[in-house]
Structure formats: C-alpha cells, structure tokens
Request: fold
Amino acid sequence: MLYLQLLINGIQTGAMYALIAAGFSLIFGMTRVFHAAHGATFTLAGFVFYECYSLLQWGLLPALLAAAIASGLFGVLLNRWVYVVIQRHEGSFFTVFAASFGAAIVVENLVAIVFGKGLVTVSSDWSRSVEMIPGLFVAPMALVAVVVAVVCFAVLHYVFTHTNLGVALRALGENPTLVDVYGLNQKTLAKYAFLIGSVLVVPAAVLTAMTSGISASMGHHIMMISIAATIVGGVGSLRGAAMAGLLFGLAENLCLAFVQPQWSEAVTFVILFLFIVFRPGGFYGRAIVS
Amino acid sequence: MKKLLRALAISQMLVAAPALAEDIKIGAAFPMSGANAEYGEIFSSGVNLAVDHVNADKRLNGKLEVVYEDSQALPTQGVIAANKLINVEKSPYILSAFTGVSKAIAPLGQRNQVVMINGGGVGPDLAQLGPYFWNVIPLVNLEVATMVPFLVKDKGLKRVALVYVDDPLGQSAREVLDKELKAAGGELVKSFSIPATAQQFSGVAAQIRDAKPDAVYIASYGNQQVQLAKQLRDNGVTQPLASYSAFSIPSLLKLPEAQGSYFTSQQVNLDSSDPRTQRMVSDYRAKYGKDPSMYAINYYNAVLLLADLAEALQKEGKPVTGANLLEKRKNTPTFDFVGAKVSFEDDGTVKAPVQINQIADGTTKLVKSGQ
Reply:
C-alpha cells in the first residue's frame, strides 16, 4: 500500500512540477531569455491570490483572475522595460540574466515587506486527504492538480499546433531570422511568449498556496525545478517539461520507499546529471551543434 | 575651490553625528532574507528595543549601536557576516542565531577575542564552543528532556516518530530524543531526516502513517516546519505533534493545522513585577502591538547583558573589549534578565526552567510550568 500511496503522491507532485516548469520552458525556449524572475512571477501570483481569496474574500474566480493579471503584467512589463531595453543596447545573454536575477530579488523583498517574511497558506478543505481504502489517503486537490495540468497542457498543445500565434511562437524558438523574413515581429511574439509563460504559473502557485504554503523566498526553489525540468525535458519542448516534471515528482516520492527523505532532492539531481551526460538534448530537445 | 572644500568639510561636520571613542557597535548575524527571515524580524525587534532603552537611559559613556548582517541562517553566510562585523565594524560583541551558523562563527570569536552570544540556536553543542561563546537560551537537550516525560508519562504517548532537518540542530535533537525516550520508557519508532530545502512532505506523511506512532516530534525550523505541520495533517497524520521553541513563530501559531500541537520553551513570566520585565513588555507592546516572544526577550536580554557589563567596565575605566567582557561576566554572580534573575554556567550557558505549551486559538497556552 505504501508504494501505491507514494505513486499517487508522486503524480500529484509531478503535476505541480510540470505546471511550474512549463512557463519557464516556454519563455526560454521561444525567446532564449533566461527568465530568472520566473520564480518571482510564481511568488507574485501566489501572494496576489492569497490577498484576494483569503484576505479580501473575493471568491475563487476573481482571485484567480487577479493573480493571472498580476503575473501576466509582471512578465510582459519586465520583458518590455528591462529585457528589450538591454537587448536594444546589444546586452549579452548574461546581462539579461543578471537583470532578471535582480528583478527577482526586488520582487522577493517587496513581497516580504508587504506580506511579511513568514509562510502563508490558503486554507481549503480540498487539500485534506480522505482515506479511500484502508491505508490509502488521497486529497481532492491531487485530482484537481492532475486535471488542471492535463487541461493546461492540452490547451497549450492546441495553441501551438492549431493557431497562427502558436506556429509563429514555435518559429521564433526555431529560427528567429526566418520570423523576420515572413514579416512577423519578433518583439510582439516575445511579448505573447512572456504573457502565456507568466500566466501559466498561476495554477501551480494557487495549488502550492493551498497544499504547502507560499513564502517570499520560495522563488529560488521554483527556479531550480524549472531549470532542471527544462534541461531534462529539452529546451523549448512543453511536452518534455511536462514529462520531466512528472518524472521528478515520481522519483522524489517513490525513492522514499528505499532511502531517507534527505536524499529525495538528490534523486532529482542524479536524474539531471544522467540526462546531461547521456542525453544532453533532454526528452524531446533538439540536438545542439556548436 | 578651497572655499568649496572648506564649505563641504564644515557641512560634513555639521551633518554627520560625531562618533565618540566610547561608542559601542554591537553586531548581529541574523537571517534577514531567505526561508528563515521571519526569525530575523523577531530577533531584531528585541535588539532594537534594548538598544533604545540603553541609549535613552544614557547608561554608557558613548552611544550603543547595532549593525545587522544577513546570515540567511546559513553557516557560510554567517562566517562572511561575522568576519565583516569583527574586522570592519570592530564589534566586541556579536549576536548570533541558529545552531549551524553559531558553530561556524564561534572559532572567529575565540581567535579574535570577540564575544558571540546566542539567543535563538538550541543545538546542545552550543554549550561547548569555548569561553567566548555564550547562550542566553536553554538548549534543545533541556527542551527534549522536558517534553519526553510529558509525552510518555503524562500523555501516555510512548511511541514517537521524529522528522528532523539534516543539520547540526536536527542531528543533536535525534540523539537526545532517542536517549530521553529510552530513559522514560518510550521508543523512537522511526526517524526521518529531511534536507533543509525540502518543501514537499506528502511522502514522509505516508511513511509516518505506516509507522503508526503515538506522537510525531518535529525538529525543524522556519517555513519548513510550517509546511511540515500542514502537510502532515493534510495527508492523514492525526497523531499529536510536538516540537521545541522554534514552533513559537507567528506563521505557525496561526496555522489551523498546527492547533493543538505541543512545544517547549523557556519559562517566561510576562506578568512578573520586576521593573525590567514590566518596562520591556509594556514598551514592546506599545512599539510592536503584540506580546514579545521568547526570542525577542532573549535578544533583549543579550543586549541588556552587554550594557550591564560595559557600564561596569566603563566605571572601572577599562575598555569594552571581548576579553574584558568575558572577565566581567565571570566575576558577576547574577544578572537581572527579563522575567528572572539568572546566572551563567561554567560553559557560558544560562540555565532556565523549560515549560510545555500548546498552540490554541492562534496563540499559546501554558500546559505545564517549568521546574
């Protein structure tokens, strides 16, 4: 029964990791901007939801909408007023990274000033497990996490395969010069990539606030998951990021049957290391020839 | 040009507060960012109030000042902070917190004859870090030794599972808990070590349910212990939770899932009639709008202890150095602390009674007084 329990826990954790990683993978894959402030977007979305849902009691949908607006605006404005400005002056990849990292620290401190430095949680009966069969506990939130992840990835798959915007975004990731040749605007497309990628953290942030709580300083942890899942999944592959997130969640939980919990995070990095050595392109990544 | 320079020099003299030779800068290596920053806020609230009181009373020849450095509750950052406080700020007295950080910076105190004083870390090893390392908080061995008989004998909870963070504090807590449970007729049924950065505990909860303990002891701190309490409850762990003084932070007291949990802390009587306690409690309430926590009181005491020692040294015409502070402390039998008159053990640790508390209605209630 313990294995089944760990398997279910792993699927829930994996669904969350997949949602966390998808936004970063999308932005990095399409724009090649190492958006280190993606963790800050997550923190911002979580705290806006907490403020609107728990403190102001606006209800679920308005609070979700407010979190989506806040995270989308943050991503788009950061791109417009920081990344684009640096790129216009021929700032290197690392200059943009440093600026993004700085923005993440600013957001972390602002959130700490406004909401405090402690952990806050959004109380919900859905996060409480019920005993399905003797010894097997499942929270309704686990089902919600899986359904939300499936719906999000299905919608993204549709957008990227059946809409002009999605095809253009994929083209931006594949060959930006060709995008110009076809008369499309790279900056406009990058704006959409930031908008979609930033809004994509909202479900994960809300689920995290309800299941384990959020704090101003959790952005770094989110970035670690995002980077690892993007590498293992393959840069630019949403399907890969989803698979990698699920793999990490399952590995972190199933390994508990054999080793102490202190090694569960190490398992993630062993997987990452093995991929870097044996399959550097990740699950679905393109081979990169230097 | 000369006129301009002269004008600048004069304006500088007028604007800048004159630094007197007798001014004392104390250092504080606290977590001001990261997952344990909530503690830094609590610690500094007690320090700031104490500095205000010392300066308002003009107890020292110069002004007392505190310089904060961010340790992030990490040993590496703690060493960087302590080096800066010793070598740049020339602090003779540094406030420390967290077991790992304190153990990392203690050798710097010994080498440079700078007093390091801890009011937040509780690892038992902190009593053995040399003459320049002092503790104004009872250590976790005392806390566990108080909690175990309460669980085993008073509550009949003999089988205890432990979740501990894999650092010096957690490892010490595991050793002491195992020893005390055996001595009290209980049993440590299973222990789970977790990394300090872990945030997902549904798998740990499944294993705890599998072990079927009577109670679960948590030896972690900061945001992680809040996540642990929530996720254990959410994932079907219904047994009573027990912990040590780190459970007294506001985010945990407010957590619905933590209600009913037991935790130990040093005994503090906020209603004590002695003037130092009355002044600290009333001014703290006025300044921060709440009761002072045990940590705020500890660091208030740590600063007042410095003021007591420095005042005595200055009256004798001696400089306020780490060596002189140590000598003065050894020659002083008792000190007035908030809530009690205390004395230091030979190992530099204050001994204080430890009480059992329970989290109820977002605050704490006393379950058993300390002895």
About this structure: The mean pLDDT of chain A is 90. The first strand of chain A starts at residue 130 and ends at 133.
